[in-house]
Amino acid sequence: MSASVARAGRRFTWRQPSILPGFAPSLTLTLVWLVFIVLAPLGVMLWFTAGLGWRGFFEVITRQRVLGDLRVSLTTAFLASFVNAGFGLLVAWVLARYEFPGRRLADALVDLPFALPTAVAGIALSTLYAPDGWIGSLLAPLGIQIAFQPAGIVVAMMFISLPFIVRTVQPVIEDLEVETEEAARLMGASALQIFMRISLPAILPSLLTGFALAFARCLGEYGSIIFIAGNKPMISEIVPLLIVAQLDQFDYQGATAIGTLMLAVSFVLLLTINLLQAWVRRRHGG
Amino acid sequence: MSITLSRRQALALTAAGAAALSGTTAKADATSETLLNVSFDPTAQLYADYDTVFSAYWAKKTGVTPTLHFSHGGSGAQARAVIEGLPADVVTLALAYDIDAIAKTGLLAPNWQSRLPNNSTPYTSTIVFLVRAGNPKGIKDWGDLIKPGVQIVAPNPKTSGGARWNVLAAWAWALKANNGSQDAALAYLKAFFANVPVLDAGAHGSTLTFTQRGIGDVLVGWESDAYLSIKQAGAGKYEVVVPSLSILAEPPVAVVDKNVAVHGTTELATAYLEYLYSPEGQDVIGRNFYRPHDPVAAAKYAHQFPAIPLVTVDKDFGGWEKAQPEFFGFGGLLDQAFGQSGASFFGAS
């Protein structure tokens, strides 16, 4: 608390005391880099969209199909990140806390969704979950169909976003002091109490960060989802596919307008999660 | 030599080509024997076969074996790639609308479609049904597709050229079956898409969904794809069902003027397309299940192509410039079939 107050009270100067020299050039480089890598592409998108004017922009983004697809994208991304937050925490906990044969292998497996081309993932998943696939044929008698349904989108999203949660939470769990938990145990706390009041508060900020990263990744994902989603407008069609559909009809402005909407929605949601995270951190005096 | 490459590889080729070009600008007026054909999905086998035949012809005529590159993908996406700089020497796409879009950027002359015979379509095709062996759902015509319990596999008309031919053919039949009632035809289109469980991005994706994933009772799509699926799967797995009315699908071809001028491939590119009209080219077309114009080839492959009454986009739909916005534009008939009024917060556009 006091550190942040001190930081906020400090005036901006080009010569800030630091152990390592070179603040001015590194800040310049940072800004140039951000402009080229992040702002320039986004700027081009906004510039294209600007050609529509406000009215045109609102006309595009309030179309039934755009809003319907946005609902599909947001709900599936939220569900996938939410489920993954639970299971990702479990995976991270097991990998960080326990020693078992094949732990390193399991640890490496977690990163695979990062590396696998998403189209390959999509084809593999849809083969597995199709009604005649290995998993799909087991679920079919129960009346459950995953592939070509909104559920398929969630499955693909869970696959690609798992590492984001595990890799954010795992280092924090590794740094937790087991002694604190042992002390709580000695003072008579139950296992549940220890987890809820000692471990979870320490993990929660990183879990929220992981959730935010996973959610953002899910919203932007295209390659793996289109193979397993049914791609039916407003039912199982994600916004990125709608953008591609606009482009394929040479409607660049419509595509960038939907992209801008997507960006704005993502930004607001990520900001909310970040604020929530800051609040959690403050509340638990992290 | 024939090389098939994906769009991504083709783009890499662009980069390499641009690098080579910037190094040797003086070479621009020299002739080159390398050609890039940018095409759409269902033509992969056709052009793989044709490239071998054309290579042999060109080598015999000029003494040089050309290097023929081929890129395939969704027709609209391919057109966009060319607009954005994919250095195609020739484009062979699913519908004239996509080549018109390229022509609008000035890469080729607006009158491109009158430069080669038959509206620049060396081959035609149509839309038929592919059903599973024995036709268990008893599908005979368009009307049977909307029966409850029938699952149709068809690509998304917003992203697939072939799917747009599907919609027009379905519309033509529904209009005729309902004495020209637009409302009844729209209701048919609605029922049609209600029976489609998966909308793939392209015709190729739909074929895979139907044949590899085993989804659906009937695949609605290119006649050439239907016969190719039967050929690849062997006898006894699928049957072609010919509807009572369909559409003459006219996939056109064109030389991309600006690109061939830069590459020095005008002669090669022009010959590449013209040879499609030759008896040899027409034979390749017929044996790859596209409908040839040449009477000899047409007679030879007549057994493959049942006579179906065919409507055309120019005569029955007023051309693509009219049909595209009317059917596939925002709030158009297709959107209405998906239950979208076309109204937005600010009213209809």
Describe this structure in words.
- The complex is a heterodimer of chains A (286) and B (349).
- Chain A contains 13 helices and no strands.
- Helix content of chain A is 77%, strand content 0%.
- In chain A, helix 4 (64-97) runs parallel beside helix 8, helix 4 packs across helix 10 and helix 6 (118-129) crosses helix 8 (150-175).
- Chain A has helices at residues 2-9, 23-50, 53-61, 64-97, 103-115, 118-129, 134-139, 150-175, 178-186, 191-220, 225-228, 239-248, 252-283.
- In chain B, 46% of the residues lie in helices and 16% in strands.
- Chain B has helices spanning 7-23, 44-62, 75-83, 96-103, 117-120, 142-145, 161-177, 182-194, 203-211, 223-233, 257-263, 266-274, 279-287, 295-300, 313-317, 320-328, 333-337, and strands at residues 2-5, 34-40, 67-73, 90-92, 123-124, 127-132, 152-155, 199-200, 218-222, 238-241, 246-247, 253-255, 291-292, 310-311, 343-344, 347-348.
- A five-stranded mixed sheet of chain B has the order 1-3-2-4-12. A five-stranded mixed sheet of chain B has the order 8-7-9-6-10. Chain B has a two-stranded antiparallel sheet with strand order 5-13.
- In chain B, strand 2, helix 2 and strand 3 (67-73) form a beta-alpha-beta unit.
